[in-house]
Amino acid sequence: MAAPSAATTSSSAPVAVAAGTITGSLGYPADFIPPTTAYAVNVADPRIFFSVDTPRYGGGPSSPPSATIVPGVRPSYTIAGVSLGTYYVFAYRNDNDQNYRGGPALHSQFVIKCIRPALAGTAVGAECNSDTADHSLVRVTVRAGETVSRIDIMDWTSSQQVQQGTLPPRP
């Protein structure tokens, strides 16, 4: 008599992997924040990216706001449905301002070491006030079902960095 065998079954249905979410604050060096597209671009394969459009926050002499800045609350963004992986997070303006010569806004070392402490009222070091400040992108790791928060997009890059070609292109 043959010994019983273990039966195995297979399914051709794909296995759903829980995606993650990236969220953070937006900032801009003026009394408004222009409309942007916030991107999470995969570090290993830049063809993989996720994005969300944000409205213009606050007013200005030439444009009415499409969203109001609430005192004490920083405007924010949320990119949902992000696949597992490691990403760079940045935003490009969407208002076609012909006078703007800078590049994208970044989630960078400058945000973590200089902007966040300054907004919290903490003194920042001399490296935050120099041309040699670290504006390198920070890698953001997304895991299944998790929300990665405080990925603030506030470091608006200079035209010099744009000319050097060290900034991520718009996907």
Helix segment count? 2
CATH-derived architecture: Sandwich
CATH H-level superfamily: Carboxypeptidase-like, regulatory domain
Roughly how many Å is the radius of gyration? Answer: 21 Å
* Gross morphology: globular
Largest sheet: 6 strands, antiparallel
Share in β-strands: 25-35%
Number of E-state strands = 9
Uncertain segments are 2-10
Beginning-to-end CA distance, first to last residue: 64 Å
Q: What number of domains? A: 1
Summarize the helix and strand pattern as letters. Answer: EEEEEEHEEEH
What is the structural class?
mainly beta
**Mean pLDDT over the residues:** 84
Helix content: under 10%
CATH class: Mainly Beta
In the CATH hierarchy, the third-tier topology is known as Immunoglobulin-like
List keywords for this structure.
9 strands, 3-stranded mixed sheet, 6-stranded antiparallel sheet, 171 residues, mainly beta, globular, 10% helix, 2 helices, Immunoglobulin-like
Structural overview:
This protein has 171 residues and is mostly beta strands. Helix content is 10%, strand content 26%. The protein has 2 helices and 9 strands. The strands form 2 sheets. Strands 2, 3, 5, 6, 7 and 9 form a 6-stranded antiparallel beta sheet that branches. A hairpin with a 6-residue loop joins strand 2 (36-42) and strand 3.
In a few lines, what is going on in this structure?
The protein has one domain (about 20-165): Carboxypeptidase-like, regulatory domain (Immunoglobulin-like). Helix content is about 10%, strand content about 25%.
